[in-house]
Request: fold
Amino acid sequence: MLMSGSFIGNANSQQSMERNKYNWPEVSTPVAEKQPKEMTAHGDKRVDDYYWMNDYFRKGPDSTKVVKYLTEENAYFDAMMSDTKELQEKLYKEMRQRIKEKDESVPYLKNGYYYYNRQVEGKDYYVFCRKKESLEAPEEVLLDVNQMAEGHEYYSATGFEVSPDNKLLAYAVDTKSRREYNIYVKDLSTGKILADVIPDTEGDPVWAADNLTLFYSAKNPVTLLSEKIMRHKLGSEVKNDLIVYEEKDRTNYIGVSKTKS
Reply:
């Protein structure tokens, strides 16, 4: 046991010496400003020194300070990790080689069409497709998310819903990484995107049987909670969408989906 303890002690000492010998970049460590805020919940008081950083999401007066601090943190990280660039690239390539980049989901049959998505080798996003009546039929590309994501630092597409008559595709896009999705509608016969754009949603469009009406859950732009189930008719102003249901209890989470029956 004494030998084991001595060995561990020597190893730790050697690691400490190597760490001290390393030529660390001369860069100052960012320090976040403390602004104590007292909050009470269930009779319990707590102080959050960094609550002010939430202003970034609320677009409040301190939002620029938050961006400045995060920029400093990123610069600090880049400086401290600058000597590991080659190792990072090596690890990245090793991990990427283990991923099956050229892949395809299991097709599912819905209303006369087989739907699936496929991954293209060397691309970051998938292609959403369908085939009519048979898997041997010609492929119809509904959305190529790789093309859609061009020019964006962040891109997320979800909520793919085809209308009951198979002519329109509703889908949702987030380009901010805040899970605030804009809903779009694509005419599958022409490939054109309709003028109807519904902002600040959960990304869950649901078609009514008339092929003209969409239900969706609307988000509070500050809290990001889904508060309302809305109804939109194609061709109408989004500001005039009707509230189908509103959740007053902020501890509940709501959404909308279509049953099979």
